[in-house]
Amino acid sequence: MFDLDGYLHDLMQHCRTAFGERLLYMGLQGSYLRGEAREDSDIDIMVILDRFSVKDMDVYREILKKTGSYERSCGFICGREEMAHWNPLEVCQLYHTTKDLFGVLADHLPPATREDEISYVKLSLGNLYHELCHRYIHAGRDKNTAKFRGTCKNVFYLVQNLHYLESGRFICTKKELKEAVPAEDRQVLEMAELPDGFDLDKAFSTLFAWCQSTFIRIDRTAGAYDKTCDTGKNNHNAGDSQIVQARNL
Length: 249
Prior knowledge:
There is one protein chain. The chain has helices spanning 4-19, 30-34, 54-67, 80-84, 91-96, 114-138, 141-153, 155-167, 174-180, 183-189, 200-231, 236-244; strands spanning 23-29, 43-49, 73-79, 99-102. By secondary structure, it is α+β, with helices and mostly antiparallel strands. It folds into two domains: 4-107, Beta Polymerase, domain 2, CATH 3.30.460; 114-248.
């Protein structure tokens, strides 16, 4: 059985030895953070160094090999400046889906607003919509069937952020998210677990219709927020300050 705590301890020790004070941050992400990992799941680790080079990539690769389970090692590594100028659309997702192991992630993230989070959800939905339409038109039925459940697996992150926009509650696990969202969202979340021989026509039509309605739903959510801001102009600055810093998203 995989010893996550032992792995993380060894990895952090190796990184601290190799990078010294240049190591600013390490965090855990993915299925091991959510408590949903299988024996073959990737081990997703986020690392931030004071600066980052190709040589550092070589060093980190060797650290991962030394730590073990290299074939399952995954995640994200970058320099402080890159993270400080990262796309604000991704800040909310990073902040809520990373557990601090060494350092504090919020200290390294750029500012982000609710509008950035709305744009992130819209972009994710648009990408899903395009992927579905493109593959349905330009690929055969066998490929559409083979790829469909993999596409639905990524719907989790879209529904996760959509629920956060609508409720203010960011839910990390799939089980809890299914229990919290409306029936139509739960239905598309469960499509990643469809059995072999599933009805592609029915599943595709359901997900496609969900995408179409969700475009409108996001705009309604954004519109409701805009009206709240307009009706509370005397407190507008106070409200803005609550969404500018990443740690308060």
